[in-house]
Amino acid sequence: MDVKSKLRLLRWRARRWYAVLRYGAQVLNSSPILFGNSFPKSGTHLLAQILSGFPKTGLVIDRGMGPLLTFERSTGRQRTDSELLAELNALHPGDMAFGHIIASAEIITLWKPSRLVHFFMLRDPRDVVVSHAFYIGDKATQNVHHAYYKSLPDLNARLTTSIMGRPDFSGDFPDIGKRFSAYLGWLDQPDVCVLRFEEFILDRPTAIGRMWDCAVEHGLHKKVNRQEAIEVLGRAIAPGRSFTFRSGNVGEWQKYFTNEHKRLFKDAASDLLIRLGYERDADW
């Protein structure tokens, strides 16, 4: 463990100790874990920023140790279920964290904390593709695919790769439909609070209110009333503080998709759009 990680661990322990002194161990131990989950480029950092406001509204402890990731950024290696479960099970009552965790059968079965508020953020996969193509090519210098994206001639080629994947890649980077399918199992879990990125853009107070209600229903120890919480959590959103933020728009795929991109996406993931409720059929 490097020095930075050790300092984060010490800060997390200090926050937990302070919570025990202020509220008592019994109250802390009966508090839910708050976990924000998503498919990459689906509004993860918007979700993380809202979660960062929860300690001001209730008994929530910011773990402060970065996202929990299924795939290693620098190599593309998929971490094992055992590795992921070790990190998930290290979360204690009252902790808040976020990341990209797939819905494998083993994780769904074995990750069963006594109280958990599991937020899962959805976004139109076509907008996800656009965000991914820009981010990997322009910003994600530590990502295993960055150099390849930089080598492509233009944005159209990047979009094609984000849709179809990289068959030549030695790791695991299939088409968008197959990549997303690993997360779909969360939608079938009754206790998962499913959110939509678009709702936070078009009707933010209502969307934040749903998050607050989910947390309260699962036993959040409140410091403020519902309206105050919505205002506090809304103020936590600051796109300029997010390195990954680019535009945060809804329906941006219509600006960048060519007819060929539409065809490729329909071949790879037309059923996904219907499954997630973004289209009724393949006629779009």
How would you characterize the overall build of this protein?
It is a single chain. The protein is globular. 48% of the residues lie in helices and 10% in strands. The protein has one domain (3-276): Rossmann fold, CATH 3.40.50.300. It is an alpha/beta fold. The protein has helices spanning 3-23, 25-29, 44-52, 81-88, 105-110, 125-138, 146-151, 155-164, 176-181, 197-202, 204-217, 226-235, 253-256, 259-276; strands at residues 33-38, 61-62, 68-69, 95-100, 116-122, 192-196. It is built from 14 helices and 6 strands. It starts with a helix and ends in an 8-residue tail after the last helix. The relative contact order is 0.16. Strands 1, 2, 3, 4, 5 and 6 form a 6-stranded parallel beta sheet that branches.
Quick tags:
Rossmann fold; 48% helix; alpha/beta; globular
Supply the helix-strand structural class.
alpha/beta
The CATH topology is: Rossmann fold
The low-confidence parts are 242-246
End-to-end distance: 49 Å
- In CATH terms, what is the architecture? 3-Layer(aba) Sandwich
Query: How many domains, in number, for the residues?
Result: 1
Look at the structure and give the CATH class.
Alpha Beta
Overall pLDDT score = 94
The proportion of residues in beta strands is: 5-15%
- Computed over alpha carbons, the radius of gyration is 19 Å
Percent of residues in helices comes to: 40-55%
Number of DSSP strands? 6
Main beta sheet strand tally, sense and closure: 6 strands, parallel
**The CATH homologous superfamily:** P-loop containing nucleotide triphosphate hydrolases
Number of H/I helices: 14
Shape: globular
